[in-house]
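quick one before i forget lol
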Amino acid sequence: MMQDEDDHSWLKQGSTSAADVEKSYDEWADTYEDTLEDWDYRAPQEAARLLQATVDDGATILDAGCGTGLTGVALKAAGFSGPIDGTDISQASLDEAAAHGVYRELRQADMQKLPLDIATNAYDGLICIGVLTYIPDSEGVLREFARMVRRGGTVVVSQRDDLFQERAFGDTVKALTEAGFYAEATITEPQPYLPGNPDFGDEIKVIYAVMKVA
């Protein structure tokens, strides 16, 4: 049975099946940005602000799970002038992202299949927004982010506050810091995520982690 293109109830459940996520976002790609605007989605702008506090404007940045490019657009609007690359599991989303003209390179990648085909120490900063819902192995992906970012660079990620607790995300960040993958980490208070979405509203918020690579 075909899913109503306006029915996004699957978002709250947050599938960890890569195939399901790819299919859902391929089907949503052409209306994604209009829908997110209706839901008052602010995460790209907030994440760009957090990255800007610790990384030079000319930094080379990876937008991991870039979707249709909203975070890349936010990075450029915040004044980042260096190269921005993007990865995503959804090719249809990458096609939409390319139309924004803010990315140096875009490639399809599944963050449940690590390591990614990206060189060690390739970036000064990495940003991963609205993606970790779908990645059950928090430790593995955060280790991979630390590998791809140069020493002293910054990784900014978001996680839903319900999954932050359920997956003990804060404990994982702390353990990776103690193990020497990250030199320091800052965790924000929960903030509005999709306030205009009836399934999220005030119930599900977003937490950001800002991590300096060791």
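fyi Residues 1-5 have pLDDT under 50 and may be disordered.
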